[in-house]
Amino acid sequence: MAHPEPATAGASEAHGHGTGEARPATGRRSPALSGRVRVPGDKSVSHRALIFGLFAEGTTHITGLLEGEDVLNTAKACGALGACVTRTGEGAWEVTGTGGRGLASPAAPLDFGNSGTGVRLMMGAVAGQHVIAGFDGDASLRRRPMKRVLDPLTQMGVELVSSAEGGRLPLTLKGSSETKAITYETPVPSAQVKSAVLLAGLGAEGETVVIEREATRDHTERMLEHFGAQISVEPHGAHGRRITLKGRPHLVAAPVDVPADPSSAAFPLVAALIVPGSDIILTDVMMNPLRTGLITTLLEMGADITVVGERTEGGERVADLRVRHSRLKGVEVPPERAPAMIDEYPVLAIAAAFAEGTTAMRGLSELRVKESDRLAAVAAGLAACGIAHEVKGDDLLVTGAATVKGGGPVETHMDHRIAMSFLVLGLASTDGVSVDDVAFIATSFPTFMPMMRGLGAVID
């Protein structure tokens, strides 16, 4: 069984995860940004490509895989569960799956580092299999709630053998090859919970149904179909969907070309909007309508973003984006948009800091249970940089200014998106912005520093 190789060169730029050594950095007032870049592959699609390769019969060829720590941990977990996982080049991987043979019980606990997506999806994958598996992660992941996934999985017949207090990591699950198909309505909009239930449903006799009141990213549904499963998606209510999966499908290996991650593209995109004179092109960005909430919001704010060459690749819509410096205005961001941009609110707050008027971001309760309490972390960072803001319940209101002084140090709380967002803020601030640690950027965007510097950003 081959084991995944380390991430490619460039990952070391932001490495440090697990070393215990904080690596501070400062984003400084920068000249106009320019250039043409492709951000790394989409993290959500990368995780799922590996997991479906694990289940499929034959060898799945993946190109454009995000080689950040989160995804590499999922690759290692797939190997430990019985797949043959091989890196064949930059972003190029092969996964020879278990087919109909079933997964293997791993010899040691599966360590997902900082990745909530990896651990929650893999819990679902294990649930419908006759295996016992331990799950663990770093200090940040150990604090994150797992009960929202465990609740439906135990309804389906999974046994929670052991866990830390409150159903948190580290925990051990005993899966079952006699998983029960259920109809489950997700209590909060969560693509991770939905995906875990659908993955568990692969091992169930009958139809597994997931009902969501707010539509969340649909990469799992698209990939299930791509690998040969029978799945149907119907509207449910005003904004929701009803997803039905026929159990025990025969999944067959299929090639996956991972598009550029819109959540990663958000950082150079916002940087170009706020740094005067900037004009950049971001290539091959995923334009899945359930992932473009940030672009929709920025366009409403007056952003100069041109969508070029929209096309379909590997079942996903992609396009190139030309982004130029813009005068932004404050807008109202409705709560029903949150699932389509949940990871982008920190960097939207940065754009809002330079917008005329107040930007009101509504219904952000889900931000409180991400890698950190992102709502609190963003508010504290804005305060450290002298930016007018207010948190009202689960709403964040940011009032922009023509000139932003900057400051810091901003506490990142081991959260990669907080670190990147406030470094971007520094690029257009008079005094720059320092953050206390950039080590965790490696989890999702290992080439962030060199890519931004290549566009002209001053980060040291």
Automatic annotation (TrEMBL):
A GO molecular function assigned to this protein is: 3-phosphoshikimate 1-carboxyvinyltransferase activity
What gene is this protein a product of?
aroA
What is this protein called in UniProt? 3-phosphoshikimate 1-carboxyvinyltransferase
- Which residues does UniProt mark as catalytic? D343 (proton acceptor)
Q: How does it assemble?
A: Monomer.
In its UniProt entry, the species of origin is given as Xanthobacter flavus
> In which pathway does this enzyme or protein participate?
Metabolic intermediate biosynthesis; chorismate biosynthesis; chorismate from D-erythrose 4-phosphate and phosphoenolpyruvate: step 6/7
Query: Where would one find coiled-coil regions in this protein?
Result: none
What is catalysed by this protein?
Answer: 3-phosphoshikimate + phosphoenolpyruvate = 5-O-(1-carboxyvinyl)-3-phosphoshikimate + phosphate
Q: Which PANTHER family match?
A: AROM/DEHYDROQUINATE SYNTHASE, PENTAFUNCTIONAL AROM POLYPEPTIDE
Q: Is Transcription one of the keywords?
A: no
- EC numbers for this chain: 2.5.1.19
**One GO BP annotation of this record:** amino acid biosynthetic process
NCBIfam families reported for this sequence: aroA
Question: Which residues does the UniProt record annotate as the domain Enolpyruvate transferase?
Answer: 32-450
Q: What is its main location?
A: cytoplasm
Establish whether keyword Zinc-finger is in the entry: no
The kind of enzyme this is, by top-level EC class, is transferase
GO cellular component, alphabetical, reads: cytoplasm
Sum up the protein's function in the record's words: Catalyzes the transfer of the enolpyruvyl moiety of phosphoenolpyruvate (PEP) to the 5-hydroxyl of shikimate-3-phosphate (S3P) to produce enolpyruvyl shikimate-3-phosphate and inorganic phosphate.
Region of interest: Disordered: 1-40
